[in-house]
Amino acid sequence: MKGRSVRNHRLPALFTLSLLLLGGSSVAQGQEITGDHRWMELDNFLQDGELIRSTWLELRGDYGDWGSGGTDSRVRGIATFAVANRMEFGGTFGYLDRSRSEDQELFGERLAADLSNNGPDDVDVFAKLQLKKGPHSWAAGLLVKFPTADDGELLGSGAADYGLFVANRRTRTRSALLWNADVRFNGDPKPSGTGSGKTSAALGGGFLLKLSYSWTFLAEARYESRRYDGGDVDFRITPTIDFRPTENLALRLGVDIGLADGAPHENYTFGFVFHL
Questions:
Q1: Which residues, 6 or more positions from 227, have their beta carbon under 8 angstroms from its beta carbon?
Q2: Structure confidence at residue 192 (pLDDT)
Q3: CA 147, CA 123: separation in Å to the nearest integer?
Q4: pTM of the predicted model, to two decimals?
Q5: Which candidate, 225, 228, 139, places its Cα nearest to that of 178?
Q6: Domain boundaries, the chain
Q7: What CATH number should be reported for the domain whose range is 6-275?
Q8: Average pLDDT over residues 54-60
Q9: CA–CA gap between residue 124 and residue 237 (Å, rounded)
Q10: Confidence class of residue 79 from pLDDT cuts 50, 70 and 90?
Q11: Are 266 and 64 contacting, i.e. CB atoms less than 8 angstroms apart?
Q12: Greater confidence, 27 or 80?
């Protein structure tokens, strides 16, 4: 795992400590964990064994630091809906501003010059079926990436990707353990010089913990093998705080800490959620 400095490994402990101090100590007063409590990392968010109650609408801002001047700044919308108490479907859309330095990797290609472009992001859609309800819930589903981002500007691969996943959640009154696994079929990128698409596999896991009525702490990890020839594996951990000033609103702040070269050094995400 080259290219990772010691400072990255201090962040989880410092971030977690500050969140626990903010959240307070009134765990006994917290409401129950439900399907409306979700992970922050997008793939883990979608791949959950539980269903939301009805509707989840979220506006997110992301800033990812890839080192050596490489950054991804993104505004993203997420819309998710529950159907017939057994199914969930939704999608994401957004706008991406991307910068990379010479010799950094994108889609399996080492760049020959600096890059700075922006435009619409790819669109992701998903659907899942809950196979088992209750405190030990299971779900399986499908993910599709539509290549709406400009591949000529290296904002996207220019190819569609497909994924299949299974997810499990074990819920207690004020905590939950979650894991998921998926296989993703990545199309060959269109830009010349990029690597061929590979079939990648991923595994995610973590927990949710109610700290009080309004505050929830989330911790998750995710590993994914290479999506493209010449690319790198993605391994990251993500501590997050979820604050709910009212029953239908949530403010969420998370930090991805990259532990492999296929992940950003740090990625900061803030989300504003309205759910029914």
A1: 161, 184, 186, 197, 198, 200
A2: 87
A3: 7
A4: 0.89
A5: 139
A6: 6-275
A7: 2.40.160.40
A8: 98
A9: 22
A10: very high
A11: yes
A12: 80
